[in-house]
Amino acid sequence: MIRSIVRGFxxxxxxxxxxxxxxxxxxxxxxxxxxxxxGIRQRYIAGEDETSAxxxxxxxxxALDNAGLTPDDIDLIIVATSTPxxxxxxxxxxxxxxxxxxxxxxxxxxxxxxxxxxxxxxADAYIRCGLARRALVIGAETFSRILDWNDRTxxxxxxxxxxxxxxxxxxxxxxxxxxGVLTAHLRSDGSHKDxxxxxxxxxxxxxxGHLRMEGRExxxxxxxxxxxxxxxxxxxxxxxxxxxxxxxPHQANVRIIEGSAKKLGIPMEKVVVTVDQHGNxxxxxxxxxxxxxxSDGRIKKGDLVLLEAMGGGFTWGSVLLRW
Length: 323
Ligand code: ACO
Hints:
The chain is of the alpha/beta class. The protein is built from ten helices and 13 strands. It has helices spanning 20-24, 31-38, 52-67, 91-98, 115-128, 152-155, 215-236, 254-264, 275-278, 285-295; strands at 2-12, 16-19, 42-45, 76-80, 105-109, 134-142, 160-171, 180-188, 196-198, 211-213, 246-249, 304-311, 315-322. Acetyl coenzyme *A binds next to helix 2, helix 6 and helix 7.
């Protein structure tokens, strides 16, 4: 059977680092509060010359280099973003143009922090049904542009960045020993739409708006939703949770990550944590974390890797793959 196999990875971060100490000069907060409640120590913030498309392009080029491919080899680009350069056209076609591509198909996906999990799942479906052979799956965000920089309860949490994977069609036996995406589980429940949202949009206010969040409400639901879709993934492939080599979660808050790992009995040595360095970069956080752990040699060929995320909507989901 056809499997979508990871052929390359890459990432890109803005030039400017903003530490918690610097945040202290912007809003009424402290390094101690931020570290204790979230685990975040710094985040990267895009400059005027940096956008979701420019960061996404850099991540895509890095992933193509890592794969030993060129844009000519790609026939699908999916960009997960909630902070597109324009309302339309899609950031994906912007990046396609920046890469000098005129062939194939390119579109955006919007599932907030779960965007990358949704995008990998969609690319996998395209590849398995023969609609695409090689896909660039990109998570690219500039949440700094939709933050209310006077709201200390949200502005300290987020950062900007981009990450990308190249997925390629390959032959598998149809077993959990195959390399590639083994199973994916997507969920959403729009009854929570007002707990984490942006208070603007083209069809409502005609403005871009700012991120608003009931942090405690999000926190309350996060661990249960995340652990549910992880259990679903392992049940689907009939593997025990102990078989996991790496849990690569969405990087929102180290307490949510530790709570989920603890509930599932996954030791923290098997969890990739980058929220301390990147903050919450929404749909970019998983591919950024993957790039860190694959570059430093932790994630190796054949490893069983679980991607999971939960975010605005609420949306949540998991992808289990063999690297
Ligand atoms: N610095 C200092 N004090 C602060 C700050 C800050 N930056 N922000 C809030 N406080 C204060 C509050 O005003 C409150 O003070 P009070 O007790 O005098 O009223 C106190 O700290 C506690 O506030 P809480 O909101 O109850 O703090 P909590 O422990 O819940 O932590 C947090 C807040 C970190 C936001 C937590 O709720 C959380 O992580 N929630 C999940 C958020 C999340 O993961 N969101 C991303 C989802 S992904 C996506 O789709 C974008």
